[in-house]
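FORM 12-B: Structure-to-Sequence Request
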């Protein structure tokens, strides 16, 4: 285990560098829900709260379809980047862009038409509430395009390593939204329309900050429609289907659980459940952020056919993320009473007691949920659609609704709370059972539980991994590579130049990249023998450095300057460089 923990250092640093941005992106929806509820209930009235509640299923449906596009495009684009096929990645990005804009236009048209023609009567028979709903819908329609483009661009900002822009965009939204809501609702008295318009304008501010980078000409992926392909559209929708359908399952599950609570507990239980969900959604943002980062890293690793990196992502989850979430869970449990009293001040009130119980029980599921979500993410990234869809069905509907229905007569409101715990544990056990059945033997390692195919990538004896942390370690690289090539029966000449080239490029990174800032760095080297080729891959987390650009600025008359890089470029069969997720990735094919 100690060896494994040392192996994941590079992956762990990358993971936690990407995580804050993804958590901030996930916080936008729950924060907006809390702001809308507080202003609607305190400054507009019951009709506004009804309008917000009635719009939620509409929002869930629109988000579900958009997630189908966003998740599918992100996974497939990351796979192409892992394969170093830039054109394929661009085409997937362009197709996702076209689909998102097209669906946004359709959604806006349907919503506006519904308010103008009276179709919103299907949501409520109360004419006064319907008017409030119409006003709320018109304000939200203004923000549909930026909202759906945000979902699409979130992962691509991570791929481009634009953390500052992504964080700035999230902060702008989180500051603008309450400010504009106060202005429109409290100061100007714009009612439901002002309530939703504030969120929409804030979302445009968020999007414009991110779009500025894509319009700058410096982005790896361009905002272009020319690469869109009808065939890619089907691939995107098929890949993103488990994410999209989960929103439908969640809606059905919510309906069932609310019906059970109404029948066996009453309105106090509904209020306690709503309060618990609204606050814990902010905690869940951490888990969804972890899932988004893991899904991105796994998708790139699938494209690279990198077995070890896939396993290392799961090790980061187990050794780094689970302990972190245990601490978060413990904090929520210890603060259960004060948190419940934020919503219901009288601790003797039954609804306050039930809310307190929810904050003490539901957090117990969080460490298991982190693990379950990563198995689900791996299934999506690796194209195991049946497993991904089954886990989505079990998690979003079967286990929570099923356990609640079975136990609510005996345990009351606690049955609903414990169903979250049973759900996460049940999903993990299901993955182990699935692997056991598929492999016909009990899985005894992470790699076996993940069911990575035998023909995926190369076997352990066909690769060698070296980590360099200092210039003293560089001098040993060449001999290790030469020894590896000799064991694999590779020609002496190829082995010698493979070792020489790697030593030269690693030394270049250490000498010129490690000292550019005060951060700790390392060079992750992998040598792979595949077919007739020896593939040398160097990853580092220093500032972006493209060796081909260095070649262009080297004075060709100076036969000494840059001789190492010249030798590499002249002797290799193919050299490719890309900057992905803040990493320099150099691949040399011998």
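FORM 12-B RESPONSE
SEQUENCE OUT:
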């Amino acid at each position: 285990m100690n060896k494994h923990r040392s192996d994941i250092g590079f992956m762990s640093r990358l993971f936690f560098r990407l995580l804050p941005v993804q958590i901030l992106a996930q916080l936008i929806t729950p924060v907006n829900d809390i702001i809308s509820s507080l202003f609607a209930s305190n400054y507009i009235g019951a009709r506004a709260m009804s309008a917000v509640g009635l719009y939620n299923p509409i929002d869930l449906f629109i988000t579900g379809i958009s997630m189908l596009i966003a998740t599918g495009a992100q996974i497939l684009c990351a796979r192409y980047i892992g394969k170093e096929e830039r054109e394929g990645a661009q085409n997937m990005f362009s197709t996702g862009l076209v689909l998102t804009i097209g669906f946004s236009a359709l959604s806006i048209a349907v919503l506006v038409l519904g308010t103008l023609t009276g179709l919103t009567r299907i949501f409520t028979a109360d004419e006064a509430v319907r008017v409030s709903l119409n006003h709320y819908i018109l304000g939200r329609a203004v923000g549909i395009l930026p909202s759906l483009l945000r979902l699409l661009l979130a992962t691509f900002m991570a791929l481009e390593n634009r953390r500052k822009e992504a964080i700035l965009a999230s902060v702008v939204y989180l500051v603008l939204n309450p400010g504009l809501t106060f202005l429109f609702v409290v100061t100007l008295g714009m009612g439901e329309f002002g309530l939703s318009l504030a969120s929409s304008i804030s979302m445009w501010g968020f999007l414009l900050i991110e779009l500025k980078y894509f319009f700058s000409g410096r982005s790896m992926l361009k905002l272009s429609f020319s690469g869109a392909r009808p065939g890619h559209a089907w691939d995107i929708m098929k890949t993103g289907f488990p994410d999209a359908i989960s929103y439908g399952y969640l809606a059905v599950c919510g309906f069932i659980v609310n019906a059970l609570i109404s029948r066996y507990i009453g309105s106090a239980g509904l209020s306690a459940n709503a309060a618990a969900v609204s606050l814990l959604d902010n905690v869940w943002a951490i888990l969804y952020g972890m899932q988004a980062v893991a899904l991105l890293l796994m998708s790139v690793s699938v494209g690279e056919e990198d077995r070890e990196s896939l396993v290392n992502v799961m090790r980061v989850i187990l050794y780094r993320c689970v302990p972190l979430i245990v601490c978060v869970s413990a904090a929520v449990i210890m603060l259960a009473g004060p948190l419940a009293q934020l919503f219901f001040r009288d601790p003797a009130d039954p609804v306050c007691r039930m809310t307190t119980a929810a904050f003490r029980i539901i957090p117990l599921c969080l460490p298991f949920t982190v693990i379950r979500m990563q198995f689900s993410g791996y299934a999506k990234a690796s194209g195991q659609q049946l497993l991904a869809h089954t886990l989505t069905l079990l998690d979003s509907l079967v286990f929570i609704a099923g356990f609640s229905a079975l136990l609510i007569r005996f345990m009351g409101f606690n049955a609903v709370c414990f169903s979250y715990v049973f759900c996460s544990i049940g999903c993990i056990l299901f993955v182990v059972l699935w692997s056991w059945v598929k492999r016909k033997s009990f899985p005894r390692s992470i790699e076996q539980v993940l069911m990575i195919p035998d023909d995926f990538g190369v076997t352990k004896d066909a690769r060698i991994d070296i980590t360099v942390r200092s210039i003293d370690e560089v001098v040993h690289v060449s001999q290790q590579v030469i020894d590896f090539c000799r064991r694999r029966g590779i020609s002496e000449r190829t082995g010698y130049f493979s070792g020489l080239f790697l030593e030269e490029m690693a030394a270049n990174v250490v000498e010129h990249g490690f000292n550019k800032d005060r951060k700790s760095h390392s060079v992750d080297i992998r040598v792979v023998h595949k077919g007739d080729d020896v593939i040398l891959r160097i990853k580092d987390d220093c500032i972006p450095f493209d060796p081909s650009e260095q070649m262009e600025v080297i004075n060709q008359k100076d036969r000494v300057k840059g001789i190492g890089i010249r030798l590499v470029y002249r002797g290799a069969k193919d050299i490719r460089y890309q900057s992905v997720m803040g990493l320099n990735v150099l691949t040399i094919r011998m």
